[in-house]
Amino acid sequence: MASTLFVSNIRLKDHWSEQRLFVRRTIMASVLVTALMIFVVVRLTELQVLNYQHFTDLSQGNRIRIEPVPPTRGLIYDRNGILLAENLPAYQLEMTPEQVPDIEGTLARLEALGFIREQDEERIRSTLASQSLFKGVPLRFRLTEEEVARFAVRRPLFPGVDIRASLTRHYPYGPTAVHAIGYVGSISKEDQARLDPAAYAGTSHVGKIGLERTYEDALHGAAGVRQVLVNVQGRALSTLSGDAPRPGRNLILSLDLDMQLAAEAALEGRRGAIVAIDPRNGEVRVFASMPGYDPNAFGEGLSVQEFQDLQSDPDQPLFDRAMRGHYPPGSTIKPVIALAGLSYEVVDPERTIFCGGFYRLPDHTHRYRDWKREGHGRMNLHDAIVQSCDVYFYELALALDIDRMHDFAVQFGAGSPTGIDIMGEKPGVMPSRDWKRRAFSRREDQVWFPGETLITGIGQGFTLMTPLQVAHVTATLAARGQRFEPSLVSAIEDPLSGERIERQPRELEPVRGVDPAQWERVLGAMRDVVHGPRGTARAIASSEYEIAGKTGTAQVFTVPQEESYDAEEVEERLRDHALFIAFAPFEQPEIAIAVLVENGGSGSKTAAPVARQVLDSYFGSE
Amino acid sequence: MIFSEGYQYEKRRPLGYAARLLRDLHLDGPLLAGLLAVSSLGLIVLYSASGKSPELFVQQLVRLGVALVALVIAAQFPPKILRAWAPWAYLIGLVLLTLVLLVGEIGKGAQRWLDVGILQFQPSEIMKLGVPMIGAWYLHDRRLPPNTGNLLALGVLILLPTVLIAQQPDLGTATLIASAGVFVVLLAGLRLRAIFLIGALAVSLAPVLWHFMHDYQRQRVLTFFDPESDPLGAGYHIIQSKIAIGSGGIFGKGWLNSSQAHLEFLPESQTDFIFAVLGEEFGLLGLLLILVLYLFVIGRGLFIAVQAQDTFSRLLAGSISLTFFVYVFVNVGMVTGILPVVGVPLPLVSYGGTSMVTLMAGFGILMSIHTHRKLLPT
CA B342 to CA B334: how far, in whole Å? Predict the structure, then answer.
């Protein structure tokens, strides 16, 4: 009896202490609950008693609407301060859905009156579906003055629909440098997924391509906000307060408008691309792809038909040839192969070989032809570059073998994107045995053949480069192996403070293993391409400045063994691509250029004069 | 009743018909009265906020009915049974939460709903009761206040479902469920020193977490704490809601006269922001009334907790009552602009049903705890 009492006493004591502890904590909790409730009541008193009059004023008759204020988009200038992209005032028709009694009916009536175009309907509906009802939906951009007047008369019939003055993007030079600058267009569903809705409230357009897209964050700025008093119909009466938007930053390009215009004029009527780079820092001076198109049309909204026309144009104006076009570099690769031969010491530059117009691999019957049917005769390295002898480079390629050519050429950036500050650059191809194993799935395709080594030596076969890449290789030649990442934007400027952030040249891994004498040997041969008596580009020699260059002709299709290629007979689309690379002045290079003319025929006849025109505009303007 | 055992109320005096019905159904009169009062006031406001929509009113009435049935059913299970079920409820909840993450249907842009035949439900609702139950179950036959090892085990039990729900991602519910678990621990008598230590630890962990966040996540956190910095999103709600409440004054504009809600300046007026409609139409007096009713319900819940006879019942009852307060406070705080905007509805008043059933089931458990007490032999 006593023992049970003892045990139960312990249990009871324990139980009681726990109960007491719980009650203590519950009391603490009740005090906290009461305190927080009192806090709420104090807040309610503040709102409903102390500020009653203030809130009643806001609530009665006039009401507050919160409107986003879109920022002004940053401007784009060329290197000399010439405006390439600006914002012009324009009127747009806008609807605030929460103030429209009958959205469908309103849209139908506006369309009947011609204020909404058919092609805008889809965009309007997707905007309607995706944003809050109190935010404005642009119905139509860039109303004409007559349309503004016509709507003003009918305004009372369309509650919630209003004309708003806004700024729209304008490119004063139209298609000039359009592939570099890009354009803005209406925000699409895909754009919405990647944009911050708060920053883009009130913004109707966004950079779609080119620098406008790549530098969207800098160009756009941040939206501001204003509280607007509106009457019962939702018409704005006055602005109460707000935060000003932060305007987008201006871009100052390294692009030289005069050179760009000269380049585009030189390519007028042709398909092709020109890229010019300052070899001292990687700044891009010319970035041209022809033909172009008018970016202003995209801001206004193209009709489906207009867009299809652009897309199906056989000249492909939308295609950015300069950094997305893959072309065989042809003979313009020869200086690099020559340097590879010197660097790996597989060639004695003074030793000559005999060029009889073709080359045959031992134990093979296939003739690898030289562009000059009758052959060049005895050639050393210098002459082979100057006269662009293919047979010499077939032998050199064989002596180097494909993997060493690959390893050397990739040092110049062949086969990988240059890293230019525009989105969407293509990488090109610099083949190797390893590359072929990875690129082909069938085993029999993965074997590397000696013949493929030969034609790689003259920039044919699998080798593909973009004109931008070719220009980068040329700049690297000009700078004796020093490499800089190409860039178009040289500075970003805050329009409010005027503060400028200059882009510092970004130096890339330089080319190694070439001594100065080897550089001078190959680059000297490039000078003689233009200034030597037998150079393939001697026609463009200038007396005012010294040019070093290299012509190239890239095959579009293969000529059967026993036939010869006759440009006149071949259909225009199947003609060879004409290429030319050059840098000048020879002693202290300031500009390196790559010219590609699609189906232009020969590099010396077509591409080299184009390069001369661009170089003249550079040296003439200084 | 089936599960009742032991002693019932001592018969002191003859009971009326209503009192006898309450006793037989294991219901608690004062608590039920408080809940019905809040719900009725809610229905009146909802009718106005919905623009006098009879369909909405009827739908909400049906939901209330279903929720009350859940309450009555929950009240029939004595605490002993609930305690035996606690681990299973918790485990099933965990499995379902994992399922939701794996195969959950996309509902409202986030994975919260599980489709069971014709029925869709949120497993996180189970956890609203499952977490306080498992906490109370765990501590039931352990020495209180809990030692460090027990605290760590409890921490894991609470964190597991919280993290799963936060993954959905439903931060509002995750917070509520975590706080339900934390209340169990606090009520169990966690030492003040430990409370401060854990608090300090959480605060010191925040910068570490911040360090590992992406920029956009940081931006979200900043907006979360300062909605006015996003006047086109969350801040718009707050500005309009403050106008609605403030313009109500002391006496309000009268029933059906909320101009802010009717002109659709006030968003979500039937759901998360219904408190603002109440404030505009019934003024400070209306708001005080509903706050007093809420306080009464919470107070009665805590009273039941104090009266409870075993550790499990005490902790569970206390946690359910305090979590209910958190619901009220988070919503009212959000609508009056003293707390960040999180999508937590005003309990028993906002339109929308799933959480109402869980809430009422919780109150059913409170009633069960109160009515299944054994009278100690004297």
Answer: 7
